Amino acid sequence: MVRITSSNFSITQICQSGQCFRMNEMEAQGGQRVSLVAHGRYMEILQSGDDICFDCTQEEYDALWKHYFDMETDYAEIIAGIDADDQYLTSAAAFGNGIRILRQDLWEMIISFIVSQQNNIKRIRRCINLLCERYGEKRVSGNGTVYYDFPTPQALANATLEDLYACNLGYRSRYIHETASYVWQGCIDLGKLYELDYVGAKDELLKLCGVGTKVADCICLFALHKTDAFPRDTHINKVLTAQYPGGFPFDKYADCSGVLQQYIFYYDLMGVR
DNA sequence: CATCAGGCGAGAC
DNA sequence: GTCTCGCCTGAT
């Protein structure tokens, strides 16, 4: 068990923000609890107010989860940098101030956000769980929980189109089949994407079948942690049209616009209006 | 029954 | 380069 105290950190907000499809809210008394599969491990986190309890060793927290949850970044500073005259953005950030931009697995994000297109979060989770159960390695955690690794490029490349359609992926089945084959054959070196800047990494990702501008931006933000990426989906476009008819002030928020995108997205999705 | 969900690829121009 | 159109599936 690792106990830490942090304002600007909410496991439920992170869970609901829709960047991670393998994080689930659980029943809990006297606080919030989520389970998570990442880094090939299963973990639970308990939170009560500013008190957060990671169910792992200190070594594991320091080596993996601290970085995964972006604990080194001061989100209060980002929020403090928001233009006080921008009432919408100020409200959105106050509403979602516990959100973090996670550092998730690159391959998992590529497939997850291909699945996400023209799809709703509930079905996205179902599709991904199905892919993991059918093509991921089965594991058992320390507390006896059965879970599945995210399928490897090889496992998905070996799945037939029919198999993928059977996972209710619809027309995205072909995209996943082609992208998995492409990666498994070594046509793209995913490792080198970490060395590129946002624009360079995005250009490479756009070569993948089923990856367009929006999906590429999500991968850049949630896997490569390019916080200057600003994914534009239907929610964001709706808000930009209504709240920023003169254009969103990207120049003010050069290297944190991706964080702001998450505040806006979450506020539009969950906020009471 | 129509519409939409965190878009994208293919083809027309 | 920009625009339109069709697309699996399920929830509302």
Task: Label this structure with key terms.
Endonuclease III, domain 1, 273 residues, two-stranded antiparallel ribbon, globular, alpha+beta, five-stranded antiparallel β-sheet, 45% helix, DNA-binding, TATA-Binding Protein
Topology, element by element:
Layout: E1 2-5, H1 11-16, E2 23-26, E3 32-38, E4 41-48, E5 51-54, H2 58-68, H3 75-80, H4 87-95, H5 106-116, H6 121-135, E6 138-140, E7 146-148, H7 153-157, H8 161-165, H9 172-184, H10 198-205, H11 213-222, H12 234-243, H13 257-270
The chain binds a DNA duplex (13 and 12 nucleotides) through residues 18, 113-114, 116-124, 165, 168-173, 175, 209-215, 218, 231-236, 265, 269.
How is this structure best described in words?
The chain has 273 residues and is α+β, with helices and mostly antiparallel strands. Among the domains are: 2-72, TATA-Binding Protein; 106-222, Hypothetical protein, domain 2 (Endonuclease III, domain 1). Helix content is 45%, strand content 12%. It has 13 helices and seven strands. Helix 4 (87-95) crosses helix 13 (257-270) and helix 5 runs antiparallel to helix 11. It is globular, with a radius of gyration of 19 Å. It binds a DNA duplex (13 and 12 nucleotides) through helix 5, helix 6, helix 9, helix 11 and helix 12.
